[in-house]
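Try this one yourself first.
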């Protein structure tokens, strides 16, 4: 948390400490002064009125105290900018800085993949061809020979190899936080997602499924198993589902579904190809839209 704040403010650790100290001393000072004024100067006793006046006084005194302390600790220029930005936000005006930061801001994503990685490739390539709202910071895989590892190397993206034991204990939350991951995308990842991860990334994990959920979902429904079942049932349509991940396999809220026809003479392989091309068209764009929404929030 401190590291993220330090990076956001764009300061070194010494400055960060001085800024933090300024907040602490300035905050306490405004509290003491407010008490002093209310008790000694206006002689207002402990009542509802006292509390209201106290809160108003602290709000008024806080910027003055913090600015004064910042001069002594050599942090005046930081607080001048900080307070003017805060003031503008309070009256609902966006600063140029805010607008620039919003335009440049990217959501850091981790792609979890254990297969060939064709979706992971498309998700990464999308960021090279578009001014995407996300950046792929980490590839996570549980297979030593997963195709996605080569793709990660091609684009210089670090890979986190995970084991079942740890995934189902601490879910590698520390590693994900170290890379400042904000959003998790499952693209061909077969393990059930543990609650630890879901709780730490609430509504921030999505998955892509090669069928029209809720049909053909659940445990064991992956890859060709899905397409075989669709063909056996003589379905006229299949498709893709992009959905949020919850504690139950393929059960979270649906974000997007796209259909395709099942053709006479289709084999699981030909159907898989059609489905893959739907995934490649829609997945990265959907991730981009969701990332854009996260930035605005
Ligand atoms: C995709 O079909 C996706 O729907 C499913 O796993 C497959 C991954 O394919 N969850 P790839 O590894 O991205 O090529």
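Now uncover the answer:
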């Amino acid at each position: 948390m401190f590291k993220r704040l330090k990076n956001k403010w764009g300061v070194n650790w010494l400055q960060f400490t001085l800024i933090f100290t300024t907040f602490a001393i300035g905050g306490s000072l405004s509290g003491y002064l407010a008490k002093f004024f209310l008790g000694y100067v206006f002689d207002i006793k402990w009542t509802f009125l006292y509390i209201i006046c106290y809160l108003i006084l602290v709000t008024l005194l806080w910027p003055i105290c913090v600015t004064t302390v910042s001069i002594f600790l050599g942090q005046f220029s930081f607080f001048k900018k900080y307070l003017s930005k805060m003031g503008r936000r309070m009256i609902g005006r966006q600063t140029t800085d805010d607008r620039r930061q919003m335009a440049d801001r990217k959501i850091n994503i981790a792609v979890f993949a254990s297969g060939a990685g064709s979706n992971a490739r498309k998700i990464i390539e999308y960021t090279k061809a578009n001014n995407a709202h996300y950046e792929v910071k980490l590839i996570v895989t549980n297979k030593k020979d997963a195709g996605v590892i080569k793709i990660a190397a091609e684009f210089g993206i670090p890979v986190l190899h995970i084991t079942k034991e740890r995934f189902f204990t601490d879910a590698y939350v520390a590693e994900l936080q170290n890379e400042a991951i904000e959003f998790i995308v499952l693209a061909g990842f077969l393990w059930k997602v543990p609650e630890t991860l879901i709780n730490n990334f609430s509504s921030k994990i999505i998955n892509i499924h090669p069928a029209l959920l809720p049909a053909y979902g659940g445990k064991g429904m992956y890859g060709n198993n899905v397409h075989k079942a669709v063909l056996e049932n003589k379905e006229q349509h299949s498709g893709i589902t992009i959905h949020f991940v919850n504690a139950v396999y393929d059960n979270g809220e649906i974000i997007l579904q796209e259909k395709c026809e099942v053709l006479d003479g289709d084999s699981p392989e030909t159907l898989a190809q059609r489905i893959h091309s739907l995934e490649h068209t829609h997945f990265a764009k959907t991730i981009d839209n969701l990332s854009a929404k996260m930035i605005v929030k």
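Discussion: The longest strand covers residues 134-141. The chain has twelve helices and seven strands.
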